[in-house]
Amino acid sequence: MTTELVKLTYKGPVATIVLNRADKLNALNAEMLAALESYADELDRNHDVRVVLLTGTGRAFCVGADIYEWSDLPPLEMGRRWIRDGHRIFARYARLPQPVIAVLNGYTFGGGLELALAADLRLAAEEVQLSFPELKLGIIPGWGGTQRLPQLVGPSRAKQMIFSGDRVLAEQAEQWGLVNEVVPADQLAERALELADSIAANGPVAVQMTKQLIDAASPASGDNGVVLETLAGSLASYTADAQEGVSAFRQRRQPQFSGR
């Protein structure tokens, strides 16, 4: 999918996705969500990409969902389309085989923070502010915030942040474990690429398997069985028994398994 609102570029083994709707503080609309999903599909199939960077242009990383996109939707349509689409798309980034680094260049609110939470790591510029303002509008975080945030900062901090809707400064977010590093704004892009290159220099299969194993350890992942099944199935397919089984099937004979 081609759109100017979300851009995907490649530099060696590092892919960079840029939210490019600066005049609206990168508020997410349907076109941007569709682009994010399309790029997730592309990245999932691209075995040359080892790390994904996700950032924004202008003064914001992303201030959440564009209120004009969802405010007039009836409840059933809101649940069936808008909320479900966001859940599905953000989950695609959480489950990408490659590590995803959210590079928070500015305001990170609501659905924008939920997108950042779907990443594996978060780097933030010093002046970044983060918040879940939904309750101030009489709604709730709808794209995974109530599930992913407690895993990083604990239930008490998550409740404080969501109940109050108050903004958290980058330094405090780092202390809480919400972001991994706080970097001067003029060094953010350089630091993000440095970290991405450091990860990309490691064995890509080992990195991706480690990501799956760590994610499977999270009670909120819900994917433990899928992850274990994927890893076990991949390994089992390379055993001598697997080769014997396939050979026996093709030769129409009974397999002679050796337990290797």
From TrEMBL:
Molecular-function annotations in GO: isomerase activity; lyase activity
Coiled-coil intervals: none
Family matches, as InterPro entries: ClpP/crotonase-like_dom_sf (IPR029045), Enoyl-CoA_hyd/isom_CS (IPR018376), Enoyl-CoA_hydra/iso (IPR001753), Enoyl-CoA_hydra_C (IPR014748)
GO biological process: fatty acid beta-oxidation
Sorted UniProt keywords: Isomerase, Lyase
Pfam families: ECH_1
PANTHER family: ENOYL-COA HYDRATASE, MITOCHONDRIAL, ENOYL-COA HYDRATASE-RELATED
Similarity section: Belongs to the enoyl-CoA hydratase/isomerase family.
Protein name as catalogued: Enoyl-CoA hydratase/isomerase family protein
Organism of provenance: Caldilineaceae bacterium SB0664_bin_27
